């Protein structure tokens, strides 16, 4: 029995903020206001949240030690990034997402599975801190979820797409070849990484904030054992948590969707408050319209690093690319950016169309935008308050 499956690692990474849509006469923007919890329903037929009963026997629990879960469920975004400290697990916050599959000509009738994020390490952890009551079991959760889904029928798929946003985009890249290996050779398997290109870059103070952050994750969670050996065979483990170093080693066809001016990285790793004690970047961090010429020049350098990081990857015919010059983060999980009438476009292609062309091999699907502010189709994110 043939079928098509989309496996979504929807691991949205944000500052615990909900999105309220708004617009200006000459651009599209989304304003981020406050935290919202919403688990409301939507149209469509869904299977409820499914606990994996065999997970405990496989040692697959979340960072609190509780059971892992997955299911064919509505696409909700879990606002939780990576777990770096030994503090008690943070509160999980749900934000409702619109039913995007109904807005895509290519994937509207696919089986969609969302693997719920609960490990804080992009499904790579395999360590514990018994004294603190923390068990990092991300890799085991991944394996338990895959075993369960394959047993439920995913093994019969004739085509499968692994996708993820933000921390889920990182997980998609790290697990892409592993996911491909689950299926027979005649199954079309590909990966879509959205907003997962977290760069090993220097911040405004000259430090490498993201490297320090990822190093803490790898050491605390014992992630090194789960990272692709194609990378760790010649680079250190922390470097292999960065997608830019894993992309060149991926054998599975992959599509990279990213903004050249990723707002999460702008706030957390390019110009974090710790690197900006005088607050010179406070307005620019929250709204790109307030960035001065020197700040924009610095951000153009970040864009250049982004393009350099995917240059070799994009040379392969099997891969796809959509990097637009927007101040945003995660574009595949929102209807207004994925496939709406006014969605962002490159080469007159919406993101959903570009991904569809790539997956079904209808033609070239490599799109790179000109530098900001040339793109009038962007849906920029602006923030109320400095996060």
Automatic annotation (TrEMBL):
Record keyword Manganese present: no
GO molecular function: hydrolase activity
Subcellular location: Secreted, Cell wall
InterPro entries registered for this protein in UniProt: PAE/NOTUM (IPR004963)
Signal peptide: 1-22
GO biological process, one term: cell wall organization
Domain of life, per lineage: Eukaryota
Any Pfam family the entry gives: PAE
Principal cellular location given in the protein's record: secreted
Its EC number(s): 3.1.1.-
Keywords: Cell wall, Cell wall biogenesis/degradation, Hydrolase, Secreted, Signal
First-tier enzyme category under EC: hydrolase
Function as written in the Swiss-Prot or TrEMBL entry: Hydrolyzes acetyl esters in homogalacturonan regions of pectin. In type I primary cell wall, galacturonic acid residues of pectin can be acetylated at the O-2 and O-3 positions. Decreasing the degree of acetylation of pectin gels in vitro alters their physical properties.
Family statement: Belongs to the pectinacetylesterase family.
Name of the protein in question: Pectin acetylesterase
